[in-house]
Amino acid sequence: MRGTVPQKMRGHGKGAALVVLFAVAASPARATGPAAAAAPDRFDRVVIDAGHGGDDQGAGGPNGLLEKNIVLEVARRLAARLRDDGLEVVMTRDGDQAVSLEQRAQVANGSQGELFLSIHANAAPSPKARGIETFFVSLHASDEAAQRVAARENAAFRSANASTSGADPVAAILGDLTVSEHLAESNEFARLAQEELAAIDRHPSRGVKQAPFYVLMGVQMPATLVEIGFITNPQEERALGSKVRQEQIADALARAVHEFGRRYDARHGVARQGGHTAPSGGS
Length: 283
Ligand SMILES: [Zn+2]
Hints:
This protein is α/β, with parallel strands linked by helices. The protein is built from 10 helices and 6 strands; from the N terminus they run ααβαβαββαααβαβαα.
């Protein structure tokens, strides 16, 4: 399933505008082929995507915490750490404003970063659901729960693109996606991030999964989406609202970014001379 180009995507009949929008989003920095691959490519720029914003509040907790607010807090803390460590950081939003999923991809591709990290908080009907899960993109979800997460996170796209027409758009995108070198690297970063996040306070790990997230599909670089905990679980909501937990999450993600960068540069034959190799350490 993961190595093929599926013919048809289930359950996304309303996404027909995708192919046009992502064609636009991807075009400015479409860097495929031998010429692009030949250029030395140092890991020095990370795109951080705080989910939701503005009218799109994301998920909400039983005590009123909003996903859009806590993911922005974590994104800002992570950005500050990475900048301190010498990396360039591009944020798709740095305030409480609405940014469409295709604008996020456009910002990412225009910045020519080496990694795209989308930060979200999870939600479930049961208040007992808890733990951290990390995703990279695929046409078909790993399981039904993963599909539900993608459907929830894709809702912003569908509401912003209500009128659609024509054939299945997602299969067209996946024609590029499944042959992309970025899938392996997206998987690699997802595993690093999941491992670091799950080590926080022995947080329950729900594993690395795959699902069709629109925000990841348009991005022409390794791309991962982390769900940093269940805002619908009262204990996790309280933790996510605390500065301590937000710092822990930012530290964990920064460690994963640095380890990914070290491997990325080694793979691309980039020699490292000090710089941002140091781990971010304790707080
Ligand atoms: Zn979200």
